[in-house]
Amino acid sequence: MFDVGVLAIGSYVPTKKLTNFDFEKTLETSNEWIVERTGIRERYIAEKNEKASDLALKAVQNLLSKNLVQKEEIDMIILSTATPDYKGYPSTACILQAKIGLKNIPCFDITAACSGLIYAISMANAYIKSGLYKNILVVSTEKNSEILDWQDRNTAVLFGDGASALVLSNTSKNIIKKIEISSDGENHKVLVVDPFIKMEGKEVFKYAVKEGTRLIEKVCLETNLTKEEIDIFIPHQANTRIIDGIAKKLKVDKNLFYSNVEKYGNTSSASIGIALDEVNREQKLDLSSKVALFSFGAGLSSGVLLFEYNEKI
Ligand code: COA
User: Fold this and answer.
1) 101 CA distance to ligand 1 centroid (A)?
2) CATH of residue 285
């Protein structure tokens, strides 16, 4: 079995910013309500002709510009999105492959909503561990603006667009210690896209707090770590009240939970990668920090990933 670690990261958000005050002009809502209930202040929205694969390409270009890995070394692309360029096929991963200029490698999409990044990494992890592949590009790209009902104040104010990209590799850098993924299909109706996002907010909220807590406790138990030994938690960025709720339930200082939801809103499966890239870029992590990423979302689905940060990505 080969070790698997995070070799490089990149991210991208579009340039057009939409603030809560902009929503005050079109919906019966207020900046105050949105900030108090969600922590969100602004989000970025893609241009009409900017597709999920375009956002993904920008995140990958950002990753490659760091020169930690060459594009020719990538031997697979796994892409998570709820807003593929085409509704059925081809996969957005194949479109991205062409845009990057890579040939003769397998590329495919997965669907696990906001947990998509951790699900995709869990697949990359298995391929690399077994020795079948060496450097896998995992991309999460979401054009949520295209699946929002802009007249629905319950959902329109919550989401934003963005993308993140990671290369997982057989490396001694930033080794993954544990990944745990789970689903609860019984509750698939509480968060659906048909054709726009519809959500029973309270149900999702309850699930996120309960499931986030359960999975983090499980991963700690199975890796013989106490919660206190984890240096930073990077949760899916949906809502500060959910994040605070999990911290409270775990009895962990909420300041150890990283949050940037106020700047980007909920960018679905891209959010954890965007947050990790920010933490890495702004040097908020000490070397040998134990980092726990965790997600929750439609499906319902959830995931936790624990890795040790020992080199900048
Ligand atoms: N502005 C003003 N009022 C709003 C509003 C908005 N943007 N959105 C909803 N409301 C209203 C509701 O219509 C409701 O009004 P009513 O009592 O007249 O019916 C009132 O606010 C309270 O709604 P409620 O659903 O009880 O609010 P809440 O405290 O549960 O907060 C969410 C709503 C969506 C913020 C909250 O449920 C939540 O964060 N859920 C998780 C959502 C999430 O993050 N999903 C993605 C996970 S991947």
Assistant:
1) 43
2) 3.40.47.10
pLDDT surpassing 90 at residue 186: yes
CB 44 within 8 A of CB 264: yes
188 is annotated as an active-site residue = no
Alpha helices, DSSP H only, in the chain? 20-24, 31-38, 52-64, 92-100, 116-129, 153-156, 201-222, 240-250, 261-264, 271-281
236 as an active site residue: the answer is yes
Query: Do 153 and 194 share a structural domain?
Result: no
What tokens does 260 get?
Answer: 């940037």
In the chain, the number of structural domains is 2
Nearest to 165 by CA among 190, 189, 136, 143: 136
The pLDDT tens digits of the residues spanning 19-49 come to 999 999 999 999 999 999 999 999 999 999 9
Q: Ligand 1 within 6 A of 265 CB?
A: no
What is the reported pTM?
0.97
Give the domain extent around 301.
176-309
Tokens encoding 278: 């920010």
- Helices marked H in 137-227: 153-156, 201-222
Residues 165 and 248 in one domain: no
